[in-house]
C-alpha cells in the first residue's frame, strides 16, 4: 500500500506557474512555499519586465533550485498576467498545472486532496479555498478599506457547494462567491478545450478563464475543503483597481465568447442580463424607470443583432 502511494505521488506531478511583476519583496517566499512539495515537478517563473529588482531574485532562485525555470517574453516586453500565464503553460511539462501569484504562497497541504480527486480520469480540474494575509494593519480589497484583523479571516471560495454541471452558471452569476487562481489545479488536456487566458483583459482574465473551464470541463471541489494557499494583500495589488468599466469589459468578453454556444435557457438569459447591465454605453444606472428600462430594452436588442 505504501509503495502504491509513493508511486502515485511520483506520477502526480504539477507545473506551478508564477507570473512575476513588482514582486521583488515577495517572490522568494512564494517559490519556497512550493519548492519542497513532493507533488511539484517544476516551478515556471515568467518575468514580465518588472520595474523593481524581481529579475535578480528570479535568477537567484533558478540558480539555487533545480525545479525553478525562468522565462521572459520575446524582446523582454511587459505583456501582463494573462500572457505570462499562457507562456508558462507553453513552457510547462507536467500533466497537471497550477498557478501561484508572486506575492502569495502555498500551504504544506496544497495538493493533498487535489491528487486524490484527480485519480478520477473524468475530473478536469480541482478548486479549493484560499485564505488571506494583510501585510499592513489596514489594506484595500476590491476597493474597500479593511483592517488586518478582519482581512486575515477572509476565505475566497464558493459560499455553497455546486455540482460541476451548474458551476458555469454559478461563476457567471457571481452570486455564490468565487474561487481564487491560487487554489485551482487543472489537467493539461482541459487547455485543449478551453484554450488559453485572455490577453485582452487587464483585469478579471483569471475569472473569465475559470468560467470558460467550467463550461468545457468538469471542475470539482473536495467535500471537506481546507485552505490550501494564502493571498497576500498590499497596496500594489491589481485587484484594487477593479471598477464598473473593468467589469463591463469582462462581461463583454464573456458575451462575445459564449453568445452562440449551446447552453440552457437559464444560462443564456443570465449571459444577456450581465452583458446588458455591465454595458459601458449605459447612461442611466440609477434614476427613474422611465429612463432606465427603455435603455435596457434598447441595449438588449442591440446585443441580439450585433
For the termini, the CA-CA separation is 60 Å
Q: Rg, please?
A: 20 Å
The chain-level mean pLDDT equals 89
- Secondary structure: number of strands: 12
Report the major sheet. 7 strands, mixed
CATH superfamily of the largest domain: Spore Coat Polysaccharide Biosynthesis Protein SpsA, Chain A
The SSE order reads HEHEHEHEEHEEEEHHEHHEEHHH
Report the structural category.
Answer: alpha/beta
Looking at CATH, which topology of the largest domain would you report?
Spore Coat Polysaccharide Biosynthesis Protein SpsA, Chain A
- Proper CATH architecture of the largest domain: Alpha-Beta Complex
- Pick out the low-confidence regions: 1-8
CATH class of the largest domain: Alpha Beta
Could you explain the architecture of this structure?
The chain has a seven-stranded mixed sheet, with helices on both faces. A three-stranded mixed sheet has the order 5-12-7. It has two domains: 241 residues, Spore Coat Polysaccharide Biosynthesis Protein SpsA, Chain A, CATH 3.90.550; 56 residues, no CATH class. The protein contains twelve helices and twelve strands. Helices cover 40% and strands 17% of the residues. With 306 residues, it is of the alpha/beta class. The radius of gyration is 20 Å and the shape is globular. The N terminus is likely disordered.
